[in-house]
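TL;DR need structure tokens for one chain.
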Amino acid sequence: MPSTVMSTSNTGAAHPYPVAVSASGLRKSYGDRTVLDGIDLRIPAGSVFALLGPNGAGKTTAVKILSTLVAADGGQAQVGGHDLAADPQAVRAAIGVTGQFSAVDGLITGEENMLLMADLHHLPRREGRRVAAELLERFDLTEAAGKPAATYSGGMKRRLDIAMTLVGSPRIIFLDEPTTGLDPRSRHTMWQIIRELVTGGVTVFLTTQYLQEADELADRIAVLHDGRIAAEGTAEELKRIVPGGHVRLRFTDPAAYRSAAASLRETTRDEEALTLQIPSDGSQRELRSLLDRLDAAGVEADELTVHTPDLDDVFFALTGGGNAPSRTDQPKEEAR
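>> reply
TL;DR here they are.
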């Protein structure tokens, strides 16, 4: 019987959810190099979990262990309610894996790749053809199905890769850096596919080198550094552990600027630019409090912007910035 984890809804009520993946004290070394040094994981079913870390941090090793491709040196894990060591076959039956490197055979067509996977899953021929056709249509590959996969673009190959992973209807999918090397359009298409999978109840264990990807997709994120989980939480929770968040107020009227400065505490002032910077975590509660104080003083700012630390800041703070994952440049300040 799968274990459960308590999750709190927006109403504050707690609800139990089955745990799709759990691990305790997972360890793995290669020679003198410790790759995983006792990591703990607890991933609710029907969610996206992102494992983030520098290159060589052990993300792929974690995926290989949890998908039964390599054995851990120590610790315990359950995947889909099955013990990793005691019942690896049951684990394999419950999961799908899309690795960093494509499993697509470029010498045969997309349809033939799908039918090959159907045969590997021992589906009856008619059932295999039905499943292959449905998945090819779902991933917008029907027109290209009869062409050799070697002629596919990178994005098409990645979509075919995931379609092949879904042939066995896995409830848990490991995606190891699924969008590496894709252009922005193909990456966003892949994000939409992942969201649709989760909407259908699938659990996604994602490793990524794109900070924005984790921010966009993941319900929870863990940062792996030196073989250990340095921090874990929602994107917003992780951002709050890094100092530096603030609200910036800009004025055009010097009198309004002086009134605001007199009514607000702990401000950093720029007399020339007529701006005030107030420490803040960017929460709705703090913003409401700030606006209430401005209203009480009879002052209105011409512009209010909120700066909150992003995952770049979190990553650099937790790992020292070595071998940083890639990111899509985004402004850190949002105009309000």
